[in-house]
């Protein structure tokens, strides 16, 4: 960690997509970013190199966020964490309700309930000692939209925000804030091949007439990581152009 760093910000699942943009934005703000990934070494290394080329501080942190031993060992090595962005995710298959299984639900809960819990318990002693900390859960607008054939994913994301609300009350006395950022459909590299008609269909019902960009989400995460958000906790901030309004 560099001497002028604000502290260490852990961003999980940051080898690509929104996680990569969030890591880049936090590094630009002066955080030393621990860039987590589980498998894509080439992707994570590329993101880290781009951040370093701009003169910012970043370190790779390879571990499976759903594995208790790996989380404990990796975070002990990283040292005190000031900000956690729970962004890591797995596949989100479309499964009709008459075919979805309990194991399908567990696969989603491992990423959106188990992983945030393991990470929180690992970083909590240092946050309590510091009297401050930021936990930022990356949720999804699907909790409000109730997308068809996504019951396992939707229910796990809803559970994730349940953690946000209860942790906010429990950890507030220690100066630790907990919030959820809920992106809408923000096109990233995995959406290559999506048609204009599909984008147009999504935009129906939004208050703004254009698709969002990864920077729109990263900027909100950066706000919640900063001291500017010191009196904001237990909240859901939808970043979806008004597709949902809460």
Automatic annotation (TrEMBL):
Domain of life, per lineage: Bacteria
UniProt keyword Oxidoreductase, yes or no: yes
GO MF, one annotated term: oxidoreductase activity
Pfam families referenced in this protein's UniProt entry, alphabetically: adh_short_C2 (PF13561)
InterPro entries: KR_dom (IPR057326), NAD(P)-bd_dom_sf (IPR036291), Sc_DH/Rdtase_CS (IPR020904), SDR_fam (IPR002347)
SUPFAM superfamilies: NAD(P)-binding Rossmann-fold domains (SSF51735)
UniProt keyword list: Oxidoreductase
Keyword Oxidoreductase: yes
UniProt domain Ketoreductase: residue ranges: 7-188
PANTHER family assigned to the protein according to its UniProt record, in alphabetical order: OXIDOREDUCTASE, SHORT-CHAIN DEHYDROGENASE/REDUCTASE FAMILY (AFU_ORTHOLOGUE AFUA_5G02870) (PTHR43639), SHORT-CHAIN DEHYDROGENASE_REDUCTASE FAMILY PROTEIN (PTHR43639:SF1)
Protein family membership: Belongs to the short-chain dehydrogenases/reductases (SDR) family.
Protein name per its UniProtKB record: 3-oxoacyl-ACP reductase
